[in-house]
Amino acid sequence: MAVLVAGGAGYIGSHTAAELVDNGEEVVVVDNLVKGHREAVGECRFYHGDLTDICFLDSVFSENKIDSVIDFAASSLVGESMSKPLDYYKNNLISVMNLLDKMKEYEVPVIVFSSTAAVYGEPENIPILETDRTEPTNPYGETKLAIEKMLKWCEKAYGIKYATLRYFNAAGARIDGSIGEDHDPESHLIPIILQAALGKRKAVQIYGDDYPTPDGTCIRDYIHVTDLADAHILALNGLREGSGSGVYNLGNGKGFSVKEVIDTAKKVTGHAIPVEITQRRKGDPAVLVASSEKAKRELGWEPRYNDLETIIESAWRWHSTHPDGFAG
Ligand code: UDP
Fold first, then answer.
1. What pLDDT score does 79 carry?
2. 291 lines ligand 1 (CB under 6 A)
């Protein structure tokens, strides 16, 4: 029996697929390679195609004995979603609808779904609990919230069980340095900082220093990508063993401002990191920090790489040895 990893050539998907393989699982990866990288997919059966293409997806389900799905496939940039909301609704919702259709048809009983802290919008409490208000401030978060609700109704109607994982800020790279983060264009803070440290960009633009935070820059909860991968595997195994559906935050419960992340990266790399202050990025809440107590309690999850320095060190190992990402 195989685990279908949708979006398994992307950043978090490829790290999870690699951990699944290490755990002895048979893994089938599907990816349209719009953002993902074929080189990031290790010992897995690979299908190049789009989840919005139902005929393609049918061939994946008919050619493999799939017992579970982990779905990472989505457009996931807050800024881009503000200017292209319809693309986000189309890509994100249709992909999951097709996946669920095929799961229903082929009687695949469980799905682990990638959601996001962006479902909360401006938080009412810090740290954020799963039961807190969900009011996204951008279309990306809206699409993920819509899918979370879709999963709830599909469980009632078709019995498909789910674990929804709301990630905070995924960061870092596989500890052996074999795979890491590579987006084009890069929009995420830590890779951008490390590109500046490598001299590949002139400066890091800090998107606003007038937020209501101690140093005026946005605060985020950075979580190592392998810790995220571990949580997916625990959630998947829990569902397979009969646990009920659930929604879980995944973060380290500690927030760092953009300036603090830059300072830590200076220390880790030993390089200068020039900065310039620019305008706020639309759709960015000031502070996002998770309570992940529920994941710890119910999934038995314990992050292994939970300090910012270790996270940045692993990212630096990847970026400094692959300055052009997978193309290098
Ligand atoms: N950020 C920034 N400059 C950049 C990229 C990001 O100041 O070049 C900030 C951004 O406003 C946010 C934080 O860094 O507060 C993390 O952004 P990222 O895009 O990495 O992740 P997101 O929070 O959007 O998931």
1. 87
2. no
**Which atom of ligand 1 lies closest to the CA of 116?**
25
310 φ, ψ to 5°? Answer: -65, -40
Give the burial string for 303-321 (b: 16+ CB within 10 Å, else e).
Answer: bebbebeebbbbbbbbbee
Give pLDDT, residue 287. 94
Residue type, 211: Y
Cβ 223 under 6 angstroms from ligand 1: no
Of these residues, 140, 162, 167, 207, which one is catalytic?
A: 140
Active site (annotated) includes residue 140: yes
123: tokens are 């938080």
Point out which residues pair with 246 in neighbouring strands. Answer: 163
Q: For residue 170, give the amino acid letter.
A: A
Q: How many CB atoms lie within 10 A of CB 20?
A: 25
Please tell me the pTM assigned to this model: 0.97
Question: 187-219: buried (b, 16+ CB within 10 Å) or exposed (e) per residue?
Answer: eebbbbbbbbbeeeeeebbbbbbebebeebbbb
Q: Which of 207, 215, 228, 282 to mutate to test the pocket of ligand 1 (most atoms within 8 A of CB)?
A: 207
Whether 116 and 128 have beta carbons less than 8 Å apart is answered as no
Q: Is 188 in the pocket of ligand 1 (CB under 6 A)?
A: yes
* Cβ–ligand 1 contact at 73 (below 6 Å): no
Beginning with the edge strand found earlier in the chain, give each strand of the sheet holding 256-257 in spatial order: 256-257, 219-220, 287-288
Strands 169-171 and 161-167, by their bridges, are: unpaired
- In the structure, what pLDDT confidence band is assigned to residue 202 with cuts at 50, 70 and 90? very high
Q: Is 187 in the pocket of ligand 1 (CB under 6 A)?
A: yes
